[in-house]
Amino acid sequence: MEYDQHVHTYFSFDSQAQFEDYLNQTERPFITTEHLELSNPEDRASDDEPDQTAYTAKLQALKRRYPNRFLRGIECGYFAPRQADLQRYLQAQDFDLVLLSFHHDGQYDYQDPHFKTVDLKRHVQTYYDRMLAGLQSAPFGDVLAHFDYGLRILDVTPVQLEAWVKPQLQAILALVVKRGMAFEVNTKSMYQWGNAALYELVLPWYRQAGGELVTLGSDAHTADKFQTGFAEAKTLLRRSGFSQLALYQHHRPHLTAF
């Protein structure tokens, strides 16, 4: 009974998608993970926070029209100088699922063309150093989302990733396990951005670290991307030794076979 656990609507700064367009595709439980992105360089350093009052009203209206079970999620973009503000926001809300992401460095989103002009190896190492430091510091997050976000617009091969940052990634994965978090298999990264080989490299490292919790997310910002690539991703997961997905309710993972 798996369902997409990384979905955006017009409550996110970078999406205009309508709930109804997703809901017309499924009767399964439904969750959106709207962006919580403070000091967002993609929006003139604004604080992008979902309007939770309007969001609650929208869910109440949808419950009267659709048979789905509605859950509440959020994608928290970690930024070290704003950690206390992020924590206060999350503590004030009742979420089922918090995705923890690393989207920007305070000046640029990691998908900004700026990163095509910097030294590739140094950028990759810096990105994962920041991810490790964030995971060590942040007391929140149920799932580490798209571990490769900072590489999406770049051409980084599995050979390069292993040579440059295997120890950092192994430390990250060990910390994910220690904290009881899940590792997200992000099908947008895998199939739209062409990073499936990076996931195929890293998933066995996660399993070797004792990792058992994995989630599937399409990272859909438009309804036509909802649940895309799930069949292919599950095939890759099986090759990596996984047979269950973690589904989150009230921050607790429930395992389902696939």
TrEMBL record:
Top EC class, one word: hydrolase
Chaperone as UniProt keyword: no
A Pfam family the protein falls into: PHP
Occurrences of domain PHP (ranges): 4-187
Stored Gene3D superfamilies: Metal-dependent hydrolases (3.20.20.140)
Alphabetically ordered keywords of this record: Amino-acid biosynthesis, Histidine biosynthesis, Hydrolase
Pathway(s) per entry: Amino-acid biosynthesis; L-histidine biosynthesis; L-histidine from 5-phospho-alpha-D-ribose 1-diphosphate: step 8/9
Catalyses which reaction(s): L-histidinol phosphate + H2O = L-histidinol + phosphate
EC number per UniProt: 3.1.3.15
Family, similarity comment: Belongs to the PHP hydrolase family. HisK subfamily.
Protein name per the record: Histidinol-phosphatase
Organism: Lacticaseibacillus hegangensis
